[in-house]
Structure formats: structure tokens, C-alpha cells
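From the pipeline queue, job 12 of 40. The input is one protein chain; the requested action is below.

Action: predict structure.
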Amino acid sequence: MRQFAQMAGISNPYLSQIERGLREPSERVVDSIARSLEMSVDALYAAAGIEVLEDDDVPAARTAIEAAPELTPRQRRALLDVYDAFVRANRST
């Protein structure tokens, strides 16, 4: 548990509180946990049994990257990070 908390960049007590349902993690923490597990946030929620509402505006590029079986989880995460960075950059211009 301590090693994972360190990998995710959060404190062990905070991770323990999340695990026991005493705290709701922020988006940043959820993203950090997903990165540590080399999976997408949506896949993390699905693995936890949390239903993620479908968003009709999910770009086809994101869907394709997330569904690509020929990529490893780390490769998917890297591509999604690059994609998200480009989208953010384009929104600010």
C-alpha cells in the first residue's frame, strides 16, 4: 500500500481513506492512480465497478486509442496524454 501511494504521488493515509470510502478522490488523484496502474481513468472506474456515463462527444481518436488491442496500457496512456495536451493547446489559442 505504501509503495503504491508513493508511485501515485499521494500519502498513504489519504489512499487508505479513499480505499475505506471515507474520502472521494479528486480528479487529479484518480488520474494519478490510473497512471500508476498504466490504465485510463475510465478503465479504472470500470474495474472498480463504477459506471461511467457515456459522453456522446467523446472524440473518435480517444475511442480508437482506448480500444486499440495492439497497444500496451502504457502506450495507450502516453498517446492519450499527447492527444489531451494537443487538445488543451488548441483550446487556448
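Job complete. The CA atoms of residues 34 and 43 lie 8 Å apart.
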